[in-house]
Amino acid sequence: MKDTYKTITQPSAEVLFKDKNSKFFGYAFPVHSEDDVKQCLETIKKQHHSARHWCYAYQIGTEEHSMLFRANDDGEPNNSAGMPIYGQIQSFELTHVLIIVVRYFGGVKLGVGGLIHAYKTTAQMALESSKIVTKTINKTFLVTCDYKNLNTVMRIIKERTLDVIDQKLELDCQIKLSVRLKESEEVFEIFERLHEISIKEMS
User: Fold this and answer.
1) What's the CATH code of the domain at 73?
2) CA 160, CA 187: separation in Å to the nearest integer?
3) What pLDDT digit, counting tens, does each position of 57-104 carry?
4) C or N terminus of the chain, fewer CB within 10 Å?
5) Which residues form a coiled coil (predicted)?
């Protein structure tokens, strides 16, 4: 089971590609929702309000977890902008990423082939200027116990080097854990078998 994915954690530096007087500015952003995409687009449109086209592509999620992607030509000929940009997201094997390429028309038509090359190259340059990281796909569990069983829970957390996201030690003890996908079943079963300790998956 694949439980890692590659992404970027910071917006890229602005990159510029020129062809026959047309200028293509490229940007890559980390995104986790369609609202994030909308905000990034609004920011870039304000920054480049006199541009002719703001073409983009994004992918959110992973194959195991509801993948979502979109490519937008924004007035350029069909599949000459959005898909070449999306092709670079696939080529770099990334997700949770948005690439926007802004075009200023320079008076000379590039033709569909020229446009495909320009949008693909600008997207590639934006990703090359980004720091790419590998992250794990995790599940979140809530473990609940009383104080007399807390040592047992903490021992398992330490032995399995589990990630504690949050803990509330009040009338009872509630510990929120983040567990790598491929270890999640095993960890769930360990806690499930214990008397007076409960575990449930959180959405």
Assistant:
1) 3.30.230.30
2) 8
3) 999 988 766 789 999 999 999 999 999 999 999 999 999 999 999 999
4) C
5) none
